[in-house]
Design a protein that fits this description.
This protein is mainly alpha-helical. It has helices at residues 2-12, 28-40, 44-64, 69-72, 74-92, 97-111, 127-146, 155-168, 185-194. The protein is globular and about 50 Å long.
């Protein structure tokens, strides 16, 4: 969680990050991989292989659905990042390609329906904390798959379902900053006092 949130903190302070798959979800994959490297001693070469696995999952989601919060809600951003990180974790742990896809599907399932509601249109609130949650979801999804628990619905159909859910979300819940947390009285008051110089 700390690593994942640190990436968004770096982004907010105009530091350099890698949009993986987006700037708003950029903390999930490094959050998971750096924590696993520290805890289990994985080499940089092993992390490169895991990143290649994550990239393959990200490609499939991008090709067949979306990773854009404006198009598919936060499920498309954080959900996709969690799916990528879950597959990478399984790859690190020596799982099979089928287990990698099961882990990715688990993560997408657990994030399905998550709206994109950035306060003031920025990726600080609630995105930073969602990166931490996405990292935790990725790890649990990977552990579930590595334990041999399969999925009733396959990865490809899960991606398709996520895309359909995202397209059915109202405009206000797709990165417009007009719904969800962004439209609460506290968020609006903060915007007025910080964004307008009052």
């Amino acid at each position: 969680a700390a690593y994942a949130m640190a990436v968004l903190e770096t982004n907010a302070s105009m530091g350099r990050i890698v949009a993986a798959p987006t700037a708003g979800s950029a903390g999930v994959i490094p959050g998971v991989l750096l924590a696993l490297q520290k805890a289990k001693g994985y080499s940089d070469e092993q992390l490169k292989r895991a990143l290649a696995c994550a990239a393959a999952v990200g490609y499939l989601i991008t090709r067949n659905a979306t990773v854009s919060g404006a198009e598919g809600g936060c499920q498309a951003e954080i959900g996709s990042a969690a799916a990528m990180a879950a597959a990478a974790c399984v790859e690190l742990e020596g799982g099979t390609p089928e287990q990698c896809l099961n882990a990715a599907g688990n993560a997408l399932t657990n994030m399905m329906g998550l709206v994109c509601d950035p306060v003031a249109g920025l990726v600080e609130v609630p995105c930073q904390k969602r990166n931490a949650s996405g990292a935790a979801t990725a790890l649990v999804s990977a552990q579930t798959s590595l334990a041999g628990i399969g999925n009733l619905v396959g990865f490809d159909q899960t991606v398709e379902a996520m895309y359909k859910v995202g397209r059915s979300l109202p405009f206000e819940l797709r990165e417009s900053a007009l719904g969800g947390l962004a439209a609460t009285p506290d968020a609006c008051a903060w915007c007025e006092s910080h964004m307008c110089g009052k």
